[in-house]
Amino acid sequence: MYYFYLYFIFSYVLYSTLGLINDIFIPENRIKKIDINKIKECYEGVSMNVVTNVVKNSIPFFILSELMYLGYDNSNSGLFRYLLEYCVTLIVGINLDYLLHTFKHTELFYNYHKAHHTTPQLFGFMTYYGSVPDFCLSMIVVIFPTLFRFNPQIVILWIFIIGYKQIILDHSNTLEFGKHYNIHHHNKGGCNYGIYFLDNLYETCDTLLIEHSKKDEDENNESGEALNDDSANDSAND
After folding, report:
1. In whole angstroms, what is the distance from residue 99 CA to residue 114 CA?
2. Which 3 state secondary structure label does DSSP give 174?
3. What is the spatial distance between Cα 102 and Cα 196, in angstroms, rounded to a whole number?
């Protein structure tokens, strides 16, 4: 056995813990700030669903992955084949991640994916929050190299790479990395499905929506404050 399941669990715990540390100790590093009480509320709201998906619903995928390697012989693999499989994994993987994400936002599938967009805050732990069909599509991206019986070391490396992309880059909401996906999540789709390069390539990249939304929120807040001030003045006059 190659214990792909354990590597998946470990990578998820590692990256989501880093996200939690960022949320608690470096809140100013987030695009959308949250205080400690809100953090607790957010984590409690998704914990049961996330744990069920990550710990339980992922098991069939990793059973399949282990079965794919019955009788596998890696003794004849050379450096060229290793590098080739690594490059194919990266190229196919980032495109598969993009394509399956766009499919999640089609009319055919969005009813299964929309729960993922109901969380008002982005944070690493909620990466696999959603329905079972939605989670299953995400797992296809994680295990796809096993379907080609690529070198097990590449599979393990890919688990950590895609975990970093989905948990840290996409969902941790950091100023350095999270702007691209933040726009997607705020808009509930329509743009920014994958990495910045692919969205540019496929003309689904948008960098302005979040700026517009922030402007709208500021204007709404200012309007609300002005209304409250007027109400207070009216009350004082009465």
Report:
1. 17
2. strand
3. 14
Strand partners, 30: 174
**What is the rounded CA–CA span in Å between residue 127 and residue 212?**
25
Given the structure tokens 């390697």, which residue do they identify?
Answer: 69
For Cα atoms 49, 171, 194, give the angle at the middle one, nearest 5 degrees.
110
What φ, ψ does residue 148 adopt, rounded to 5°?
A: -100, 0
Amino acid type, 22: N
d(CA 146, CA 155): 7
Please report, in tens digits, the pLDDT of each residue of the chain (238 residues total).
999 999 999 999 999 999 999 999 998 899 888 888 888 999 999 999 999 999 999 999 999 999 999 999 887 778 999 999 999 999 999 999 999 999 999 999 999 999 999 988 899 999 999 999 999 999 999 999 999 999 999 999 999 999 999 999 999 999 878 889 998 988 887 899 999 999 999 999 988 754 544 444 444 445 445 445 555 455 545 5
Nearest residue to 170 via CA among 122, 98, 234, 203:
122
Residue with tokens 């989670």: 135
Count of CB atoms within 10 A of residue 204's CB?
18
User: Residue 99 is which amino acid?
Assistant: L
CB contact at 8 A, 29 and 18: no
